[in-house]
Model the fold of this input.
Amino acid sequence: MTSADRPMSSLIEVNGLSASYGRVAALKPVDLRVEEGEFVTILGPNGAGKTTLLRAISRLIASNGQVKFKGQDVTGLPTHRLAKLGVIMVQEGRGLFGEMTVYENLLLGAYGLGHRSEDVERRFEQVFGLFPKLRERTKQVAASMSGGEQQMLAVGRALMAGPKLLMLDEPSLGLAPKVAAEILDTLGELNSKGLGILLVEQKAPLALKLARRVYVLSSGSVRAELPAHEIKSHHDLARYYFH
Amino acid sequence: MTLRAITSIRLGRYGPFAVAGAVFVALLFAFVFIKGGYLLTVMQLAMIYGVFCVGLNFFMGYTGQASFGQNAFAALGGYGTAILCVQYGWEPLLALVVSMAISGVAAVLVGYPTLRLRGHYLAMATFALGLITYDISVQWQSVTQGYMGYSGIPPLGIGPFTVEDERAKLVVLMVILLIGVWISGRLRNSRFGRALRAISTSELGAAALGIRISRYKLAAFVIAAVYASAAGSLFAHVVGFISPEVFGLQMVVVTFTMLYVGGVGTVLGPALGAIIASLLPEIVRSTGRFQDIAYALVLLLMLIYVPKGLSGLASIGKKPAAAPGKEG
Done:
């Protein structure tokens, strides 16, 4: 069952979310929602406020506005509480702990599980099932891995946290097209199992193949919200994102 | 299994430099122990500084934060144990433990507001903490006896058993340092330690995984304070005398040097740095009036050619855990 076939209820709902860096308003009041098990993509040029939006949702930066998760008002909840609820973000540049091993990075992903070793083991098996390469490299230091492997690790680490909503900031950045496609295919597979995904991407053709809906961000505001398959019919957007 | 096979496994795990380093430190210790005299005192102080540095490493190494004020907690430990033993006749061990607890509480009270700062601001705030403590120890004469300091502090001991022999003191200090290093190693590779190291690499990354940054920074700060307090108390019991100068600015500079010479963020580095940086002035003493220049030159060369510290040499010749991945 694809995300398009499932009955929808709101997983996360953002109303009037804004954020600024000093006096510069990086994000003007933005409304956004992701339904349960939905795959949503945010497109936009550099400086559009895409990263700021994800960081504001996960409270990595201070913001104004309302955020609801599964109908519950989580506005102002600190990042660690959001992470416990299942709002997990994979940061741009992967945010790996480079001097730690693959195993240690994955263990940190399961930080919220505490010392429940059986749950941790089960999550390890799930991640290794998706990314068999990681199993072979558990003792390898993360910084010594290739870009693609690092991205697998970043996604794997996020999955160790047992996310309900996985937010990814340009996971294909700096990767060879084939590797980027593999990563995005895996995200599609996860979404097909019911995981809500909010993806920030610049490589629109890849991201739109999986997404149900698209938000187009520009200068900190939402310029358009439309079903992914309709974007090609909007000539100005299609020209910008497909050429 | 042949001896060669056993040796290759050991070397594979630790690397030849690590084995050579361990043998060197053991021989050094044995030499000082047999020779005695002034070198014994130098080595005793190295052990005490080692305890301080192992603690400081929690905050500066594992967590990647800057603190120029841990000498304040060493002063708390030193004066705490001196006052409790000399004025109130407490048992040295009890005084040491109570002083550590007081320092831990003080670190919570000071750290809670201070650790909201970052980078240079945090460094300056902690630096001020050290200066304030120094001034208090000078000015609050009714409690600290000012520049006169405290003398007649009893040696370490439990009940009728006291450690008065210099060699025995060294052994006791070495055991305490080893326990400190062991705890540091265990914590580094625990869930707690991984969280600290994650904060050191990326605070945002760690927070995104649900790690409570402020709580962990405070915990590392408190641990560093407790270690520093223990070092201050040990100094008081081993030397028998303390004054404000003992816990002054020089302590900050010396312990920083030790931490970076040994290898900040590593388990063994702080202890190794304390030993090497303490003995180095004795080694270069033969250069006479050039000894300060020689000391500085050796330190400079170490920082240039061994930027990760002496414990970084341990990885030379060590087998990699796995082949690096391809580009892609």
Summary: The two ends of chain B are 41 Å apart (CA to CA). Strands of chain B lie at 150-151, 157-158, 161-162, 241-242. Residues 213-239 of chain B form the longest helix (27 residues).
